[in-house]
Fold:
Amino acid sequence: MSHHPLPDNLHLDTLAVRAAVDKSQYGENSEALYLTSSFTQPDCETAARRFSGEEDGFIYSRFTNPTTASMEIRLAALEGSEACIGTSSGMAAVLLLCMALLKSGDHVVCSRSVFGSTIKLLGSEFAKFGVTTSFVSQTDANAWKQAMQPNTKLLFAETPTNPLTEVCDIRALADIANNAGAILAVDNCFCTPALQRPIDFGADVVVHSGTKYLDGQGRVVAGALCATQAMVKEKFLPVMRSAGMSLSPFNAWVVLKGLETLGIRMEAQSQRALELATWLESHPKVARVYYPGLTSHPQHALAMAQQSGKGGAVLSFDVHGDTPEAGRKNAFHLIDSTRLMSVTANLGDVKTIITQPASTSHGRLTEAQRADAGIQQHLVRVAVGLENIEDLKADLSRGLDTL
Ligand SMILES: *Cc1c(COP(=O)(O)O)cnc(C)c1O
Structure:
């Protein structure tokens, strides 16, 4: 049965495109995937009201789709925000944020340790349109305060950072932003709302790459911004409508279903990461471990307070290596000796991922820029998945024991 009963005596070719199972819109146990570009309007008057925004209703999937809306409602609920808007990728979320909130002559203060493409987008692309950005220390709130200018409109932070897991104090940055009438946006990709809710600490906007833990199984590229209803409706939605960095309903559906297991995945993956980090820290072939869950981490107390007592699922460590050449050789040996872990640029997957940041995610930096960022040749990053911890240790032991 279709939602609207079909007329009798239709021809086969008509039935082929019109006959369908009961649409029973609200009876489905798993959320429906509305893979449609546009929505039919019951009549012209209704269409006019919907197009003008006078009445809610689905129009066109560049800016309104029920599956995407389900994902947005679910993610907003998890982040404790009033509203959310899905985007085609994490970077599209950063782009939407900047397009919506900045204009020529404005200034941004951003951590210098944020995701590389965010640095490029602000430092190179938006610089072309007269937006200037000061890049400051991740961990020194005073440096953020000193970088503020009368035209500062946005503070952008990401915590913890990739790959060194540096943590910043969201509450301190929110106070700086508030006092200046600026917006604080926090990229919450690494912790997800399962561990950290930036809005609880005073952030105005939460930025997400849905590609990582929200999907959780490495299937789609997606993103989102969480904020107040007013900001989403009045600032973000109009830009989305004209610029079109839209989330595909299919990808929204994958993220929507991925969110169902977010809590248990983050819990289990964080627990494995802590166990692996603790084991690595006492390993004779490992020089240093970077993981917020370890008491040796410089911001351990802050991380525990901000991240529900958990370190997250990403850790990094230095193998030995007296020269950059020796460090690179040892890191490559360790990575190439693994047989379970995936050598790939992603993170946030249930499959454990291992990378050498210096030659991959941070490969476009000069040696001097990398040294400045603390990313040396002997650094190895592991985004811990859901495999058994003993199997993961054995996978790293293979290379570590033969260094
Ligand atoms: C991956 C990532 C992004 C970008 O997300 P995409 O979905 O790849 O565009 C932004 N921020 C952080 C912290 C990330 O790890």
Summary: The domain at 263-400 is CATH 3.90.1150.10 (Aspartate Aminotransferase, domain 1). The pocket of pyridoxal-5'-phosphate is lined by residues 89-91, 115, 158, 162, 187, 189, 209, 211-212, 221, 223 (CB under 6 Å). The chain has two domains: 12-259, 263-400.
